[in-house]
Amino acid sequence: MTIKYGKRLSSRFIAGRHLHDALEQVRALNNMGIMATLDHLGEGVTLASEAAGYRDAYIKLLDGIAEQGVYANVSLKPTQMGLALDAEASLANIRAVARHAADLGNFVRLDMEDSAFTEATYSIVRRLREEGLNNVGTVLQAYLHRSALDAKRCVEDSIPLRLVKGAYKEPPSIAYQRHTEIAEQFKRLIRHHFDHGAYVAIATHDDAIIGYVKKYASERGIPTSRFEFQMLYGLRMKEQAKLAREGYRVRCYVPYGEMWYPYYTRRLAEKPANLWLVLRNLVR
């Protein structure tokens, strides 16, 4: 894929290169009754100075959210903060972002990357929460075999989770490969959260999962205040608006920044099926 063609395709799914572009899109989403989580694009930094730059960019992002009065929190990648370089330095960077968010009454979600960083990411979240930074949560990937146990531990520790199917390519030894297996695990994780009274963010574009959540919650009298649906910016926007009109909490994952090309191509490389999702949405 050429950069020119990739940029044209990605422009529908990335909110712009600059913070003000993203905040404008978030305001438009808010006007539709949709919340947002903002992702300043970047991952896998190779220099400590790059990680520090992303730390500062997230602090600026949090200030922008507060100044504009939009309804949004933030999502960041631990490797963006230097996790692959220096675990303690990355913890310090993430701590600085989380503390600033706490001062502003906001929330920070640590995105889950490939399995090499799963345990380290959970460790960072637990350490920050032990320090009193309860405005920090993370992500649970349904396709990983370990996720059932991780869900149990996170619910017991009151760690806010976003449930996703998982997009990184992982081997059969640690991850389910078949769509049906992943979907069943996803449903089990949803039930676990609902049955234990935990708030949960359910990130999916799958009508079957959305329908399952609606039915399970309705049958058990689970109020819509106990969960939210999350979808990506530019994907199924009509469905996002429809869910919001129906009274469900909906949050849109809004990426922005200069690093759009690595982000975009990595998403396609990690899971080729993502390309078909993109192409289908070009005609919706």
Descriptive notes:
With 284 residues, the chain is α/β, with parallel strands linked by helices. It has a single domain, classed as TIM Barrel, CATH 3.20.20. 50% of the residues lie in helices and 14% in strands. It is built from eleven helices and eight strands. Strands 1-2-3-4-5-6-7-8 form an eight-stranded parallel barrel, surrounded by seven helices. Helix 5 links the parallel strand 3 and strand 4. Helix 1 packs across helix 10, helix 6 packs parallel to helix 7 and helix 7 packs parallel to helix 8. The longest helix has 21 residues. The mean pLDDT is 91.
Please outline the helices and strands.
Layout: H1 3-10, H2 19-31, E1 35-40, H3 48-68, E2 72-76, H4 87-103, E3 108-110, H5 118-130, E4 136-141, H6 147-156, E5 161-164, H7 179-195, E6 200-203, H8 207-219, E7 227-232, H9 237-245, E8 250-256, H10 260-270, H11 273-281
Parallel strand pairs: 1-2, 1-8, 2-3, 3-4, 4-5, 5-6, 6-7, 7-8
Helix pairs in contact: 1-10, 3-4, 6-7, 7-8
Uncertain residue segments:
none
Number of helices: 11
User: Can you count the beta strands?
Assistant: 8
Helix content: 40-55%
Morphology call: globular
Distance between the termini: 22 Å
* Beta-strand residue percentage: 5-15%
